[in-house]
Amino acid sequence: MTPSAHALAAIEILTAVEANHRPVASALKDWGASHRFAGSGDRARIASVVYDALRSRASIAWRMGSDAPRALVLGALAFVRGATTEDLARAFADARHAPEPPTDAEAAAIASASLDGAPAHVRGDYPEWLDASLARAFGEERAEHGAALARRAPLDIRVNALKADRAKVLRSLAHLNPVETPLSAFGLRIPLGDDGRGPPVQAEPAYQKGLFEVQDEGSQLAALVAGAAAGQQVVDLCAGAGGKTLALAAQMRNRGQLYAYDSDVRRLSPLHDRADRADVRNLQIRAPKGEADVLSDLRDRADLVLVDAPCTGTGTWRRNPDAKWRMRPGALEQRNLEQDEVLDAAAGLVKPGGRLVYVTCSVLKEENEDRVAAFRARRPDFAATPAAAAAVEAGLPQLAAFANADGDALLLSPRRSDTDGFFVAVLRRA
Ligand SMILES: C[S@@+](CC[C@H](N)C(=O)[O-])C[C@H]1O[C@@H](n2cnc3c(N)ncnc32)[C@H](O)[C@@H]1O
């Protein structure tokens, strides 16, 4: 398929998303199933155009004067990828399957488009109804933070210290030109292609051998700040597929006991294979069993409980721009209830003197500082660790630069730390 045919397919897919209110991932899957001639490379290139359009949907719509799928795709090609009207006209005229060449009005929009005078939610490419929340988080700079969350995300991997070191993985992936990430001592960043796609690293022999995992540098840092140590009793209470569990296991060097729990048994299932591949030997996966409390034996026993809480995921909008536009008022309140519940459950597992580390991949205070404040009002026996001290304890003093306004938690974000958005609060039980 030609790049013009990819653009045409992207318009079709965005049209289906809009018409049927479908998640974009399932619309992409359906398109692939009904266009079998398109290989995996074509499907990935089409998805990349769709995601470029969605990340910048509001600002493209403003500049093009339309939020129709065609305007979004032409805008993505022009404003994200740098194509001129002439480039588009030539490419579309030369291809058999292609969108119609740009109209005069579209050409004029592409040539003269500016975001001057656009409101913050347009410049920052986020839903208007979230403006007050983003203003609480970032004040006058919310449009710039939103714009950073609307850029393409890098491809980061975490070297598995149980099996390798950075030098070894750098050598095995040399053909992909990785560089060391600036903040995590276990991170490597792999350059993306011009179209924003990363190489299929999971097909690499080094991945199959468990030498590394795909994990954003911000997620790596959250796990490092949690600070699991060899010999400890550690609970990962919202383990999901285990991204952070595996990072904690590497810190523990297979000594002590690590427990992974998630209230959704289906999310835990990939962790079994992932842990085997990573050579993790001190992990017990505690899947929920009906009404039974499968963690009752751990009450007041854990040196560390990590709560990687269910959240709106605003910090991961670069990777999941569809979620940004699908998020509805009410979702925040629902997540807040879950966050309070899981914090209370975690508190019951921490031993006196132990740590509870609360993490979200959201930048919103409603899910972060507000939840910690409400928790501390319920549980005055837990004290917040200043962010600078938590960074030093984790051997990462440079993270003190990312302390939140109150100085009692870390706030990472694309604009602050060139990572996904993460909030990390370290609480210690008296
Ligand atoms: C942010 S995700 C976890 C991601 C995972 N830790 C990782 O690093 O890949 C949050 C998880 O919390 C789980 N969850 C939601 N409510 C929970 C509860 N009350 N107890 C335990 N897990 C819960 C969800 O099923 C979801 O998998």
Automatic annotation (TrEMBL):
Keywords noted in UniProt: Methyltransferase, RNA-binding, S-adenosyl-L-methionine, Transferase
Protein's UniProt keywords contain RNA-binding: yes
Domain spans labelled SAM-dependent MTase RsmB/NOP-type: 145-430
Top-rank taxon: Bacteria
BP GO annotations: methylation
Positions in coiled-coil regions: none
MF terms in GO: methyltransferase activity
Record EC number: 2.1.1.-
Transferase as UniProt keyword: yes
Chain sites annotated for binding S-adenosyl-L-methionine: 262, 308
Active-site residues (renumbered): 361
Pfam families assigned to the protein according to its UniProt record, in alphabetical order: Methyltr_RsmB-F, RsmF-B_ferredox
Family, per entry: Belongs to the class I-like SAM-binding methyltransferase superfamily. RsmB/NOP family.
Protein name: RsmB/NOP family class I SAM-dependent RNA methyltransferase
